[in-house]
């Protein structure tokens, strides 16, 4: 019994994956593209670039170049000065 309880405890700590509140989450990386005309922050994921139109609605601590994030979104087709990727509306954004 003395061995079983610590083993179960370690299994729960290291065996459980991190859960996210984002449903249908996609993993990506925050990229600062402010050096390009009309661009600011984009998210690169799955060989695509996404331009979030409502990034200001989320935690500004995530705005660090190369921060790994998980996010869910819906297409938000609007004109973009940056024209670097698909414009999206974020539903959820969390640090990975």
Structure description:
This protein is mainly beta. It has a single domain, classed as NigD-like N-terminal OB domain (OB fold (Dihydrolipoamide Acetyltransferase, E2P)). Helices cover 12% and strands 36% of the residues. It contains 1 helix and 5 strands, in the order H-E-E-E-E-E. The chain has one helix at 4-15, and strands spanning 26-32, 41-45, 48-52, 68-75, 86-95. The chain has a 5-stranded mixed β-barrel. Strand 2 and strand 3 form a beta hairpin. The protein starts with a helix and ends with a strand. Mean pLDDT is 85; it is low at 7-17.
Provide a brief overview of the structure.
With 96 residues, the chain is mostly beta strands. It has one helix spanning 4-15, and strands at residues 26-32, 41-45, 48-52, 68-75, 86-95.
Please supply descriptive tags for the structure shown above.
12% helix, mainly beta, 5 strands, OB fold (Dihydrolipoamide Acetyltransferase, E2P), 1 helix, 96 residues, 36% strand, globular
């Amino acid at each position: 019994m003395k061995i079983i309880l610590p083993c179960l405890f370690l299994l729960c700590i290291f065996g459980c994956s991190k859960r996210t509140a984002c449903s249908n989450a996609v993993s990506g990386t925050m990229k600062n593209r402010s050096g390009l005309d009309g661009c600011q922050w984009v998210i690169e994921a799955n060989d695509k670039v996404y331009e979030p139109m409502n990034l200001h609605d989320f935690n500004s601590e995530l705005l660090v170049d190369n921060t790994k994030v998980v996010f869910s979104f819906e297409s938000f087709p609007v004109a973009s000065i940056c024209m670097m990727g698909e414009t999206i509306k974020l539903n959820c954004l969390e640090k990975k």
